[in-house]
Amino acid sequence: MTAETFAALAERIFERAPRLGPVRLVAVDGPSGAGKSWFAARLAKAADIPVVHTDDLLDGWDDQFSFWARLEEQVLGPLRHGRPATYRRYLWHRKAFGGHPVTVAPADAVLLEGVTAARREIRPELSFSIFVTAPADLRWRRALARDGADDVAFRAYLERWRVNEDRHFAADATAAHVDLLVDGAAEGFDDRYERLWPAPPD
């Protein structure tokens, strides 16, 4: 493993050409509890770019993969054409979309974070893609701690979610096609992360 700073990664990203119209779309993918949100937040801060979380566009647990049409219509389509994207977040406690609209300008780079963010359909338009991974038992503990629920119903939803995402990643071969594989289990500082693959650039 090799440590790299988020600032250095941001520089590498801005060296890439835009592929989603005028936007460099950066995907941070990986299984639940791997550390995607932590990684995305620090990269976005270092690069000073907006983040779109796919969880905000899911219409509940059963929309794990089928939300993509909504993402395309409300976010990717407008950005691709140099227009601001606007959407409302899914409010999980209300089981409905609502709250104030979120607007994302067609910035030089936009970060898309969440399960399937680097899926096959969007690969040709990604300027940079990252897969965050961690051991299954650690991911399970993190998910329970993060969502603050440890009842039978939540565990059933989470178990089904994990089975589905494992099948997706195997069929999609996501990790084999990304630019960067990150160790989400590594304990480190807020300004750096542990890279599993590839080797550092010369």
Automatic annotation (TrEMBL):
Boundaries of every Phosphoribulokinase/uridine kinase domain copy: 73-149
An annotated Gene Ontology molecular function: ATP binding
Domain of life: Bacteria
InterPro entries: P-loop_NTPase, PRK/URK
Protein name, as recorded: Phosphoribulokinase/uridine kinase domain-containing protein
Native species: Actinoplanes auranticolor
